Amino acid sequence: MPKGKKTVFFCQNCGYESPKWMGQCPGCRQWNTFVEETVSTGNKGNSVQGPGSGIKNKPVALTKIQAREDDRVKTDIEELDRVLGGGIVQGSMVLVGGDPGIGKSTLLLQVCRQLSEKGHKILYISGEESLRQIKLRAERIGEFNDQLLLMCETNLETIRHTIEEVKPEAVVIDSIQTMYNEQVSSAPGSVSQVRESTGILMQIAKGLGISVFIVGHVTKDGSVAGPRVLEHMVDTVLYFEGDRQVAYRILRSVKNRFGSTNEIGVFEMQEKGLVEVKNPSQAMLNGRPTDASGSVVVCSIEGTRPILIEIQALVTKTNFGLPRRTSVGIDYNRVNLLMAVLEKRAGLHLGDWDAYVNLAGGMRLGEPAIDLGIVMAIASSYKNKVVDEGLLIFGEVGLSGEIRGVSMAEQRVREAEKLGFTACLMPKANLDSIQGKYRIRLIGASNIKEAMGYI
Ligand code: TYD
Ligand code: MG
């Protein structure tokens, strides 16, 4: 081993560093994710304005600093602008993560198109596809002008020189796992390479005021560093979610230094690239079965926007001793907990029944306000009785079967009315503030026994 180098082990999922190999990562609890990498010890030449970097930095009065909202550049892809908090902030770094093939490159190429259309100079650097492949993709998306420059490159030194020469206003790096820096000895895609590369790009972004988009593949096998190891470095982290089989794609912000998190944007993958879904509630409820037991509609607040979505439950007799429970799009443990509450507080004997709970449209929801919907769907399927299709349900369910109030109840009611629902089953605690303001019938319930009456 040359002097000044040492080997350490990194978790490829979360970047946890350890001097020895471990089977399970203490940081993220994933198995088999540690990979040996060589790192240089001693002088870290690339630290961002660390001590001794020679840059004289002085404190400035907060009031003297100029910053305006219109420093943001809108992409005119509304769903994306909202997720970004109102547009792209100059000099910011945005990480777009997601499974391979979900549409990251397509989305960013569309962003490039919008920005170049507005006269911004954009540089798209791909380490994955050839110029011809990008061209073919671009042809599906639409017409492009001369402001978009393409380059196939993986060496960061070359990329740095190109950026300094071309001086674009935004740069897209597709993907960070293919980039490498000669100073780091480990392979491209390893934790140290990915971090070092991001660090260099960060310096470029902040130094020249260029907005940088980085693509990061979410990897399952743990041999390549995932985007999570970069989350703390960048300004904004967006994840592209959804099934490849389902056309809907959800763009979710999990970190945003310039806007609210948990905001989502909904897209649909079509023949000509990603198309915005302006009214997601409508889209998610399309094709909903009528007169089917186990199907209810809930309302979840995603960021600042209410979204109506269908929950389906199927409860059937268990064939072999142990009942099966599965859930798609909803936390599995939450479903189990709510079934226990139903058993104990509403007297449903679910012990020898299988239960399958699904969220339609490839969405994932974690808000407690959908609890009551899950409970109602399971009970409806168990009793084989239909819940009125004009009924919207929301409310958090506690362990003693009580229905607790939720935030932003009024927005939920408004969205339900807008989409033609006739009634809302909601927590009694939320009723007072909304009663009488809307034409839609409001039904308050304080525990799940009361709620069962509406099946
Ligand atoms: P892509 O952007 O290459 O995914 P990623 O960069 O996240 O790996 O998206 C690839 C998928 O999208 C591919 O399966 C083809 C599909 N697609 C369409 O359906 N329509 C289109 O117009 C485009 C460009 C891609
Ligand atoms: Mg791609």
Automatic annotation (TrEMBL):
Protein family = Belongs to the RecA family. RadA subfamily.
- Specify the protein name: DNA repair protein RadA
Is Cell membrane found in the keyword set?
Answer: no
What the protein does?
Plays a role in repairing double-strand DNA breaks, probably involving stabilizing or processing branched DNA or blocked replication forks.
Of the GO CC terms on this record, one is: cytosol
**Organism, as annotated:** Candidatus Blautia pullistercoris
Domain RecA family profile: start-end pairs: 69-218
Where, in this chain's numbering, is ATP bound? 98-105
Please give the InterPro entries that the UniProt record associates with this protein: AAA+_ATPase (IPR003593), DNA_repair_RadA (IPR004504), P-loop_NTPase (IPR027417), RecA_ATP-bd (IPR020588), Ribosomal_Su5_D2-typ_SF (IPR020568), Ribsml_uS5_D2-typ_fold_subgr (IPR014721), Rubredoxin_2 (IPR041166)
Checking CDD domains in the record gives:
RadA_SMS_N
